[in-house]
Amino acid sequence: MSSRNLILAALRENQPEFSALPDLDGPISLETEPVEKFKTLATAIGSKIFEVSNFDQIKEVIIKQFSAKARIISSFEELAAIAETDIKGINPHLLENTELAILKAQLGVAENGSMWVPELNMMQRVLPFICQHLALVVYKKDIVSNMHEAYQILGNSNTGFGAFIAGPSKTADIEQSLVLGAHGPRSMTVFIMN
Amino acid sequence: MKDHAELSEEFNKDEARVDWHDETLWFIREKRDKAVHTIPEWEWLRETGSQIKNNVLSNLSVYLEQFESNALANGVKVHWAANAAEHNEIVLSILKGHQVDRMVKSKSMLTEECHLNDYLTGNGIEVIDSDLGERIVQLANETPSHIVLPCIHKKKEEIGDLFHEFLGTAAGESDPQVLTEAARQHLRETFMTRKVALTGVNFAVAETGEFVVCTNEGNADMGAHLSEVHIASMGIEKIIPERKHLGVFLRLLTRSATGQPITTYSSHFMKPRQGQEMHIILVDNGRSRQLGRADFRNSLKCIRCGSCMNTCPVYRRSGGHSYHTAISGPIGAILAPNLDMKDYADLPFASTLCGSCSNVCPVKIDIHEQLYKWRQVLVKDGYVSPVKAISMKAMAFTFANPTVFEVAGKSGRWFMKNFPSLVSNKLNPWYKEREMPEPPKESFREWYSKNRKIT
């Protein structure tokens, strides 16, 4: 018998009597001001927040912080003046010198300051991880209270890949000292769009 | 092989280090408490997480088949491994199939359980661990001492020495910021040049065929998205029924582990990247056997947060290596005897049974009760030393017989008073690090029978 069938047979033999799934309609607390809560949590985990109402304001912030020579990549056509907006077909290894990526988050989660980014918004899967700095743009209306609401919105969509991203990459493996910029981005900027 | 008590004794030689280790882990436990107290529905979340896992255990075969067919439909190759050896062979055959002799790996306690690194190295494959803590213990030729914080037992000066030797940092450099930056540069080169990346799996969803990997560093993503071949190794108990259940577990996991509201990255892998090959290895290695043990099957509900270790008064003072198994601490002590009752018979005794582990467990595993039950199984089946078995039998006999108990108490008090060296000596483990108490003049029973007559 194959290992597959051996394992399945052993499980069928050994698993206990069927136990029903619980429903998820529990006493889940909702945020009265999800945007404020999101800002608090995102700041606490090391993100920088800017509230903006158009792409010119985003450009202004970027130009102040990054030199004209820095490689910037963005999924927003509106930022074509300061960023590459088409990296289709590029070998992902060639993105290693990306200084900043500016991508669109599908939703933000107030309870933990994370944002969901599906593969399509990443342009290439590795981009939000390999860039030195990451900026995500999330619309105010897309900020939800908690993870339960987030998954309700995602449903069973199959986007190939997707990630909740919360702040810059970090580690505390050396004596519990927090260091930002482990393997991924050294900083996270969040643009909350009105 | 040295047992838990002997290995703890070695760790305990450096008292200042024990205090530091103890305080560091307790600090993480306190961070967990703070995070938990911000969620009013925390107990509901734990109960719900527990019930979802109960359902998973009762229907595991069905969920695994469902997961397999959905993963296949997503273009992922699915392998089944009955044991550690088969898992390791599958990994090697994938590497050989691509004529590759170097691999980058992100954190996977399952591969530690399977001793994958040793096996691959023995077969001429170079493996580099990319989680910072794991890389540090790998350079030190050690194993992780904690499932979430692999090098929690190491001082920054020791890490500085390792990095000086292997990564060329300045001698005496021990600033965590500088050391982390050196590891970042070194591992970036690794990510850029490895064709095969192996990651662990935190959760796999039967309904969608996807799996979720949680990291703070981004190392799993760097490895996987730059590789031509991504191998994900998972224990079969990592399955959950539906995607919406991730909402429950992602809320529980990191708050319990480190007190963070969520890990920096919760990556959902559904399909391979265009042009990439993706493999999932479903590993049993004793899990189906544990599922058949009614008293111990709950250990399979574990989501590997490590909170039972951070809170455990024994773990904090004995260190993870004293458990001489991949998964240390209270949860490891109930998982390991299933793998080998003889080798790990000491571990269920490495506990005070205080129950703190069960209190913090995010999926409500009755850890301390299982530790107690394992002790009974191990003694009954003859896996503990004859001395311990005899003394436990003698104790049981004494406690069950009031007359013997009274005589034993009296003679104990008499001996302690007249020949204190009989108990206050090195042969008595209770004398270590302690002054023995003054023997009481009389037992409570004697006091009670005297005083009751007066009133």
Question: What distinguishing features does this structure have?
Answer:
A: 194 residues; alpha/beta; Rossmann fold; five-stranded parallel beta sheet; four-stranded mixed beta sheet; 6 helices; B: 455 residues; 21 helices; globular
Structure description:
The complex is a heterodimer of chains A (194) and B (455). Chain A has 194 residues and is α/β, with parallel strands linked by helices. Chain A has 6 helices and 11 strands. Chain A has one domain (33-193): NagB/RpiA/CoA transferase-like (Rossmann fold), CATH 3.40.50.10420. In chain A, strands 1-11-6-3-2 form a 5-stranded parallel sheet. Chain A has a 4-stranded mixed sheet with strand order 7-4-5-8. The radius of gyration of chain A is 20 Å and the shape is globular. The model of chain A has no long low-confidence stretch (mean pLDDT 97). With 455 residues, chain B is of the alpha/beta class. Chain B has 3 domains: 13-288, 3-Layer(aba) Sandwich (Rossmann fold); 297-380, no CATH class; 401-454, no CATH class. Chain B has helices spanning 4-12, 15-37, 42-58, 60-73, 84-97, 109-113, 116-122, 132-139, 156-167, 176-193, 219-226, 245-257, 287-291, 307-311, 313-318, 329-339, 356-360, 367-380, 386-400, 402-418, 444-454, and strands at 77-81, 102-105, 126-129, 196-199, 203-205, 211-215, 229-235, 239-240, 265-269, 277-283. In chain B, helix 19 packs across helix 20. The longest helix of chain B is centred in the N-terminal third of the chain and has 23 residues, at 15-37. Chain B is globular. Chain B starts with a helix and ends with a helix. The model of chain B has no long low-confidence stretch (mean pLDDT 94). At the A-B interface, helix 1, helix 6, strand 8 and strand 9 of A face helix 2, helix 3, helix 4, helix 8 and helix 10 of B.
Give the overall shape of chain A, derived from the CA principal axes.
Answer: globular
Give the structural class of chain B: alpha/beta
Number of helices of chain A: 6
The biggest sheet of chain B, with number of strands, parallel, antiparallel or mixed sense and barrel status, is: 6 strands, parallel
The biggest beta sheet of chain A reads: 5 strands, parallel
In terms of quaternary structure, the protein is: heterodimer
CATH architecture of chain A: 3-Layer(aba) Sandwich
Q: Largest interface, by Cβ-Cβ below 8 angstroms: which chains and how many residues each? A: A-B, 74 and 92 residues
**Which structural class matches the secondary elements of chain A?**
alpha/beta
Distance between the termini of chain A: 60 Å
